[in-house]
Amino acid sequence: MEKLYYKNQYLKEFSARVLKVEKVNDEYHVVLDKTAFFPGGGGQLCDLGYIDNKKVLKVYENNKTIYHVLDGEVNTGSNVLCSIDWDRREDGMHQHLGQHILSGCFYKLFNANTVSIHLGKEISTVDIVGVLNEEKIREAESFANEVIRNNIDVEFLVPSNEELSSINLRRDLPNTEDEIRVVKIGNLDINACCGVHPSKTSDLKMIKIKKFEKNKGNTRIEFLAGNRAIKDSLNKDNILREICSYLSSNEEEALSGIKNIKALLEEVKIEKKKLEEELLNYEARSLLENNNSNKIIIKNIFKDKSVEYVTKLANRLCERENIVCLFAINNKEKSNIILASSKNIDNLNMGEIFREFSNIVNGKGGGSKNLAQGIAKENNIEEFLNKIYEFCCNRM
Ligand SMILES: [Zn+2]
């Protein structure tokens, strides 16, 4: 089987003869006399595409034979026209070479080798030995983009065992009896790899390091290469433009604009807290007005108030002795219930009371002796609170 992808990595269409077809379930595993479909390897995904208008679902290598899994049948002995999903392949080659370049740059600049790599559908990672700081990472990123601009040839060598022993590879050789393929990027990097790469670094156009973090004593670097990096950069430019137009500022002033908004927000939050405090005290006083008895049950249904606010109000009132608050917040779909009592009231348990009367409103919730909270699914909360009011009156 001739591996065309190693001879011309830019081959998008080719014709081949079908040597064998095996039907497995509803799929057809097809062997061709030659193929440009890369079966995957070196961290790179396999190619997809079409063979005689049948969709290629997967390509894999088994015992040195490459199988193309199709969703329809082709005839053994026939000549077929094959086309590769080029966007997928090109993207795969770009991420892959991007990883080689980054690995080479970190090694060349800081003598920091690569521990592991992952080429993902959206983002790829390379793990570099040791903990690297932002400055070093940006230096490597800048060097990687210089390598791209310098349009260095990417050579694909198949050295003999003798030659291999004299080549100073960055990493140990894989343990295999198959022929070993070596990727050489000028004098930046030389490493064993079975993947498919572009023939020159300028194909990549750009490498962008998106993020980095410590990972098991090493540094995990997330990167984008080629079109992915360009798309990301254009998208960021759009986002920044929208931010600037929102802030009515230029790019340089955008960050200080956001910081100003944040500072203002903090001031407003403090002011809001103060006002809420005043409102709570005012509302607590007005709910207690006209109540001369020393034991007071306050029943109230609120509208347009948050659960947080009403709970605070109940807690504020119950800071005094001998108070019971039977509160609800009326919403269309479901209402919130807050039952609270002063700490000195021993013969009422708000949690138990809520549970006992909850069937009236199809309620769910509960709580402790002095505070219960819940939700009422039916809107007869007036009746519900009245029943609890009666119950409490008889015991206070
Ligand atoms: Zn490679």
From TrEMBL:
Main location class: cytoplasm
UniProt keywords, alphabetically: Coiled coil, Metal-binding, Zinc
InterPro entries, per database record: Ala-tRNA-synth_IIc_core, Ala-tRNA-synth_IIc_N, Alanyl-tRNA_Editing_Enzymes, DHH_sf, DHHA1_dom, Thr/Ala-tRNA-synth_IIc_edit, Transl_B-barrel_sf, tRNA_SAD
Keyword Coiled coil part of the UniProt annotation: yes
Pfam family, one: tRNA_SAD
Keyword ATP-binding belongs to the record: no
Coiled-coil annotated residue ranges, if any: 258-292
Stored SMART domains: tRNA_SAD (SM00863)
Designated name of the protein: Alanyl-tRNA editing protein AlaX-L
The organism of origin for this protein: Clostridium gallinarum
